[in-house]
Amino acid sequence: RNYYGGNWASFSFSGLLSWIKENQQKTDTSDDCEDWRKLILENEEVISLSKKDKTIQHVEDFCFGDQDSAEDVEEAGALPKLPIFGASGAEGVAQESEKECPPMESALPEAESQEPEKATGTKPASAMEGNDTEITSKNESCHSTALGESALELGKTEAAPSEISAQEPKKVTYSQIVREGRRFNIDLVSKLLYSRGLLIDLLIKSNVSRYAEFKNATRILAFREGKVEQVPCSRADVFNSRQLAMVEKRMLMKFLTFCLDYEQHPDEYQDYENSTFAQFLRTRKLTPSLQHFILHSIAMVSETDCSTLEGLQATKKFLQCLGRYGNTPFLFPLYGQGEIPQCFCRMCAVFGGIYCLRHSVQCLVVDKESGRCKAIVDHFGQRISANYFIVEDSYLSESICTNVCYRQISRAVLITDQSVLNTDSEQQVSILTVPPVDLGKPAVCVIELCSSTMTCMKDTYLVHLTCPSTKTAREDLEPVVQKLFNLNTEKETENEELEKPRVLWAVYFNMRDSSGVDKNLYDGLPSNVYVCSGPDSALGNDCAVKQAETIFQEMFPTEEFCPPPPNPEDIIYDEDEIAPEESGFSNSPETKPEPSTEESSSGGSTAVKKEDNEE
User: Fold this and answer.
1) Which of 166, 291, 384, 484 lies most in the core, judged by the most C-beta atoms within 10 Å?
2) Tens digits of residue pLDDT in 5-58
3) Residues near 256 by Cβ (< 8 Å), separated by ≥ 6?
4) Where is the composition biased (Acidic residues) (predicted)?
């Protein structure tokens, strides 16, 4: 691929159109050159890898405007693309997105014991040569935690001078979307970060957070009786709510207080452990509206499949995340979820890691005697040896995956002209769960992003819809889209439709969910080849973090997973290392103490001089 992150990636509008075209054509990349087979020895065999990505299906896109008027329109600020045969270190990361971004005011997670700095003045490892853009953190543009933890500051990015003029009309055309296509950062997978989730903890611990900034999700919404309404979830929201009667406020606070320490009161729920969470809520003297809010907007669980204990755990997780960085439990990375894998690549590049774009792999080379994988052969006919190999599921051929049964995720991405719930502030990040129309069908998670998230142009909203698949993505999600939005392209629409946001453009697609597949189900994989999955359908990122840590610990059981990086002043370089670095080659720094076995086998070691026993 010519982009980072696989199915976790984000695209500009033109980039997404190219991705759509590529997945609708589904052409095989046949390899006519067989010279690489000469590299295989007699005592070796090969495991061929898939040449075709089959993780995306049923891609359908729709334009609800005059598409012909945009035929000759070019994306503003487009840069000529240079061929990338292999990108290494900081140079490789610099090429990851080719997007034109305004200077950012950073809001970075810090270790919880540290105070936020007023200005970091640091430059990302991915900065291009000659690019002096600095990432700074300004107190006046940050939203920090209400609990005084200061573990994460939330950035508000000021509009660049080239933003669309306020004098332009509110009506947005397709040609405007194409022209401002670089303002869009459209995620293939839609997720939010729980403020006390595993990914936030990992970003802070590993200091990868220095390369990203975040915005707090501002609203939790509910869809009830055909209307969208805001859900009060924090104590302040509950008592300031006008939609709840005083009695309901007391009921809700009493139940939420119980959920925070439900383990201490087993007598209150143990009789309902075999019941669903929805049935348990009916026994708690809660009104139907409160039951709806708790089930679909706070616990965000299924009405039919979720047990009482699972529902209580989900509610407690939601409540524990409140107040850390704002009035909701969720954060969203500016410029999209696709920034997260790039942030880890930047940190990797600082310590000598290499990430190659547009660099395909032909096969795994396996030793017949030991059964272990020895090397890979790339499309240049180059043989690369290693001790461990990590393969994303989509690269495995059908012969290896004969026993694997995959789930699917239904996805839709919409560009709309207004919010699903208009308020005084246009800059809202909202999450809405739409209950299923029929029992047994999955609920649909809707995430609406405003332009201050740097994912869409001014006067538009980017809306992501996600649910586990039962049919094609369009069949699963279009009924929900019709409930919430106006799809009518004609000028004459009913008054009810006029009140709804208008969809300007939409795409539907199904994505493979390979999470939860046991490694033993893959036929004939050597023991030192590890498989990681693509994105799962859950709202958070816990599955990916657990999987990464599990694979790492299997390879290096005595090593710490994503340890805090050393400060630059603590790194000691060998005199022998300095000369090659000055000549333009980047080598990993070395340390005075002897490196571990795993570090030695990886071809280089990172040295940290610990002055004061800091971890």
Assistant:
1) 484
2) 999 999 999 999 999 999 988 665 555 566 777 888 888 899 999 888 899 999
3) 298, 315, 319
4) 571-580
Give me the residues paired with residue 214 across strands: 154, 333
Joined together, the tokens standing for residue 490 give 């004609």
Supply φ then ψ for residue 259, to 5 degrees. -65, -30
Structure tokens at 15: 């980039």
Q: How far is CA 51 from CA 27, 140, 361, 363, 601, in A?
A: 10, 50, 9, 10, 30
Structure tokens at 42: 């007699």
At 396, list the tokens: 């495995």
Query: What is the chain's alpha carbon radius of gyration, rounded to the nearest angstrom?
Result: 25
3-state secondary structure (DSSP) of residue 391: strand
Other Cβ atoms closer than 10 A to 485 = 21
Neighbour-count burial of 73, counting CB atoms closer than 10 A to its CB (0-12 exposed, 13-18 middle, 19+ buried): middle
**DSSP letter string over 180-214?**
TGGG--EESS---EETTSHHHHHHHHHTGGGG--E
Those residues whose C-beta lies under 8 Å from the C-beta of residue 213, and which sit 6 or more positions away, are 104, 105, 106, 107, 108, 154, 155, 157, 333, 334
To the nearest 10°, the Cα dihedral for 350, 353, 359, 364?
A: -170
* Among the listed residues 200, 405, 421, the one whose alpha carbon sits nearest the alpha carbon of residue 320: 200
Query: What is the per-residue pLDDT across 402-450, written as a single tens digit (0 to 9) for each?
Result: 888 899 999 999 999 999 998 878 889 999 999 987 777 899 999 999 9
Q: Which residues contact 192 (CB under 8 A, 6 or more apart)?
A: 217, 330, 331, 332, 431, 447, 539, 540
Could you tell me the two tokens for 306? 């979720």
**What count of other Cβ atoms lies within 10 Å of the Cβ of residue 71?**
8
pTM: 0.79
SS3 236: helix
Cα gap 313→260, rounded to integer Å: 9
Closest CA to 60 of 445, 398, 475: 475
Taken as a whole, the chain contains a residue count of 615
Residues 92 and 349 sit within 8 Å (Cβ to Cβ): yes
The answer to whether residues 234 and 326 touch, using CB atoms and an 8 Å cutoff, is no
